[in-house]
Amino acid sequence: MSAADTGSTEVKTKPLHFIQQIIRKDLEQGLHKKIVTRFPPEPNGYLHIGHAKSICLNFGMADEFGGACNLRFDDTNPEKENEEFVNAIKQDVEWLGFKWDGAVRYTSDYFDQLHAWAIDLINKGLAFVCDLNAEQMREYRGTLVEPGKNSPFRERSVEENLALFEKMRAGEFEEGACSLRAKIDMSSPNINLRDPIIYRIKKAHHHQTGDKWCIYPSYDFAHGQSDAIEGITHSICTLEFEDHKPLYDWFIQNLPVPAIPRQYEFARLNINYSVTSKRKLKQLVDEHHVDGWNDPRMPTISGMRRRGFTPAALREFCERIGVTRSDGIVDVGVLEFCVRDDLDKNAPRAMCVLKPLKVTLTNCPADQVETLTVHNHPNRADLGDRTLPFTQTVFIEQEDFREEANKKYKRLVTGKRVRLRGAYVIEADEAIKDAAGNIIEVRARIIEGTLGKDPADGVKPKGVIHWVSATQNLDCEVRLYNRLFIDEAPDAGGKNFLDCINPDSLEVLQGCKAELSLATASVGNSYQFERQGYFCLDSKYSTTEKPVFNRTISLKDSFGKTEDQE
RNA sequence: AGGGGCGUCGCCAAGUGGUAAGGCAGCGGGUUUUGAUCCCGCCAUUCGUAGGUUCGAGUCCUUCCGCCCCUGCCA
Question: Is the C-beta atom of A492 closer than 7 angstroms to strand B?
Answer without folding.
Answer: no
